[in-house]
């Protein structure tokens, strides 16, 4: 008997009954209630008892043993002094005997909490938008079947089943929470096969956004919550299973009634607040996860076969990109520059003004432009998936596809320039902080990551290097130098990366120095933790970040662009749903800017709109179709002689 010690009894008395021996609903001085499923040795807080799982013979043997103990105790009591009595009461009682009302209250509260926890887990949706009271006012069919199974199983099997069910329900709850997070950030559910690698990126994002101490505390907190969830869910299911067995008659009737109500509600389509009362939530989510798991495993084989097909694999080098020979070609990605920045009424007027002003400024500098839409394979994050899709001409929407394509001999668009032998290739990657072996796949002769740009200024949250400084470094390290070949570059601008605070400001190009000038700008910026308390502020700061990136790029072209400069710039993906709202498209703007009219003549059949701002009726292409269209447009025309390379 837990929390108590067997004590001596006076002669000819029965063993004292403590509150440890009482069911939760019995008064402290009444004998324990006997039921066919309960031999009367339960505790006030639901402690497991052997009597619940034993037969009548065992109960008889226990009674006999108690009687014998009473006789032996009688003799021992005679030799016990009266002075010892107070100490015996203390040893005997424990807090349950001394505070029986409190014990019953605690037991009831724990039982109710266990029931609420299990019910909430069975009904928990996997999207924050569905997290409404109506979702939790339903009858889960999984709970009905689970209760029936536990009532039918023998004791040992029942205990095992309760533990397994508790752990399984805890894992399902964890996956639901992961789905909520992924839907909120990436607008898709968590992939249990491919997405584990993203936790490393999440930790890195936290470290850059809130510091090492905050990131470490967050990781520790998540680990504690995960372990606590699994343990508490298991204990809750085990507790409820014991309660049902102790009151099997009531539990059986309740299960039958709930089963009948569920079937009736399902047949009639009864709804409450627009949600079906008869719930199959957990079963549906498990089935959905299983289908996604099978799809992820099968996708690897399908994609490997698809990646081996390349219409340009055997194109002779002197036939590649003949329409751009002698041009410096810059492919520039603007982080999180999505369709919502242009189409959302809350941002459209400001971004529209920036794009119109940029078009005029570029026209004044001798440049013309065309724009349209591309549909990204990702949203909210996963920029590398968009980059590889755009360059490879393959739809890269998960990590497995990314690993497959970057380890293959597929020819990305950037590598086509290198294979032609007519260009020097370089990459400006301010967001890369560690080794980047994929750079070889992209055919880049030189990769300048965050450590090689010469930046000594402060970090702007996740964005380590302001966009204007990255472009200035590109001019200093590559574009402004004389080479024996023209230059093809991939440039990643990251100042518009989540969390969009603090945001850099445009300053004179000759004032940038080593970036130390940004210390005052960074300190005067907004705190991301404060910004993210208000979704309206998040959208405002996102818009301002996009404006800064666009200003940086247009200003660079004004100052450093020349008659041989060709710029292709686009967004990699839409921002998080906090900015776009739910069910937003995955479209991103794309624009081509050139000084030489012949460059734009090559794409006259694309139907792209004049200027930097694509219109609502401008063509929308999948991002993976761009590579082949581009290589075709700038390949040799029928009967034409490829021009000689020139700077």
UniProtKB/TrEMBL annotation:
Segments of skewed composition (Pro residues): 24-34
UniProt keyword list: Membrane, Transmembrane, Transmembrane helix
Annotated segments matching region Disordered: 1-89
SUPFAM superfamilies: Alkaline phosphatase-like
Gene3D superfamilies documented for this protein: Alkaline Phosphatase, subunit A
Record-linked InterPro entries: Alkaline_phosphatase_core_sf (IPR017850)
Membrane-crossing segments per the record: 101-124, 136-153, 160-186, 215-238, 250-273
Residue stretches of biased makeup (Low complexity): 41-84
Name of the featured protein: Sulfatase
Native organism: Streptomyces nigrescens
């Amino acid at each position: 008997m837990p929390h108590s010690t067997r004590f001596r009894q006076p002669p000819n008395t029965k063993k004292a009954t403590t509150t440890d021996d009482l069911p939760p609903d019995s008064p402290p001085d009444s004998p324990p209630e006997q039921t066919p499923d309960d031999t009367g040795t339960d505790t006030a807080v639901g402690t497991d008892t052997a009597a619940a799982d034993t037969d009548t013979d065992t109960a008889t043997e226990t009674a006999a043993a108690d009687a014998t103990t009473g006789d032996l105790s009688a003799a021992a009591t005679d030799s016990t002094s009266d002075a010892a009595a107070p100490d015996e009461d203390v040893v005997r009682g424990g807090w349950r005997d001394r505070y029986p009302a409190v014990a019953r209250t605690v037991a009831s509260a724990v039982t109710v909490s266990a029931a609420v926890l299990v019910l909430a887990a069975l009904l928990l949706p996997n999207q924050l938008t569905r997290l409404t009271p109506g979702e939790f006012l339903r009858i889960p069919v999984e709970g009905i079947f689970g209760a029936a199974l536990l009532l039918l199983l023998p004791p040992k099997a029942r205990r095992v089943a309760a533990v397994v069910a508790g752990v399984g329900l805890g894992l399902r709850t964890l996956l639901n929470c992961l789905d909520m997070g992924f839907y909120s950030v990436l607008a898709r559910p968590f992939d249990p096969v491919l997405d584990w690698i993203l936790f490393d990126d999440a930790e890195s994002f936290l470290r850059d956004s809130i510091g090492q101490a905050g990131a470490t505390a967050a990781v520790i907190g998540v680990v504690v919550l995960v372990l606590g969830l699994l343990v508490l869910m298991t204990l809750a299911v085990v507790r409820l299973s014991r309660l049902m067995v102790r009151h099997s008659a009531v539990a059986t009737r309740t299960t039958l009634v709930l089963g009948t109500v569920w079937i009736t509600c399902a047949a009639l389509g009864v709804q409450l607040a627009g949600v079906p009362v008869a719930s199959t939530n957990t079963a549906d989510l498990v089935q959905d996860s299983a289908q996604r798991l099978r799809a992820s495993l099968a996708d690897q084989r399908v994609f490997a076969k698809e990646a081996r097909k390349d219409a340009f694999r055997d194109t002779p080098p002197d036939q590649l990109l003949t329409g751009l020979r002698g041009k410096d070609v810059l492919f520039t990605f603007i982080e999180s520059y999505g369709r919502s920045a242009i189409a959302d009424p809350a941002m459209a007027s400001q971004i529209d003004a920036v794009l119109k002003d940029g078009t005029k400024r570029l026209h004044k500098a001798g440049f013309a432009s065309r724009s349209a839409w591309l549909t990204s394979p990702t949203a909210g994050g996963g920029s590398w998936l968009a980059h590889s899709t755009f360059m490879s001409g393959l739809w890269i929407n998960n990590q497995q596809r990314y690993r497959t394509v970057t380890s293959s001999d597929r020819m990305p668009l950037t590598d086509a320039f290198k294979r032609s032998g007519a260009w020097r290739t370089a990459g400006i990657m301010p967001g890369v902080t560690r080794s980047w072996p994929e750079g070889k796949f992209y055919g880049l002769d030189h990769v300048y990551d965050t450590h090689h740009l010469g930046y000594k200024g402060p970090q702007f949250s996740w964005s380590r290097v302001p966009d204007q400084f990255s472009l200035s470094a590109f001019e200093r390290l590559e574009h402004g130098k004389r080479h024996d070949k023209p230059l093809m570059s991939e440039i990643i601008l990251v100042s518009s990366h989540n969390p969009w605070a603090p945001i850099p400001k445009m300053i004179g190009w000759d004032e940038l120095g080593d970036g130390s000038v940004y210390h005052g700008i960074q300190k005067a910026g907004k705190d991301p933790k404060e910004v993210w308390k208000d979704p309206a502020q998040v959208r405002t700061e996102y818009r301002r970040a996009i404006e800064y990136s666009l200003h940086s790029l247009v200003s660079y072209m004004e100052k450093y662009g020349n008659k041989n400069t060709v710029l292709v710039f686009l967004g990699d993906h839409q921002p998080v749903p906090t900015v776009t709202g739910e069910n937003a498209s995955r479209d991103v703007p794309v624009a081509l800017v050139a000084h030489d009219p012949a460059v734009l003549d090559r794409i006259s059949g694309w139907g792209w709109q004049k200027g930097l701002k694509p219109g609502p009726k401008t063509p929308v292409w999948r991002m993976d179709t761009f590579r082949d269209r581009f290589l075709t447009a700038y390949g040799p025309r029928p009967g034409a002689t490829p021009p000689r390379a020139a700077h």
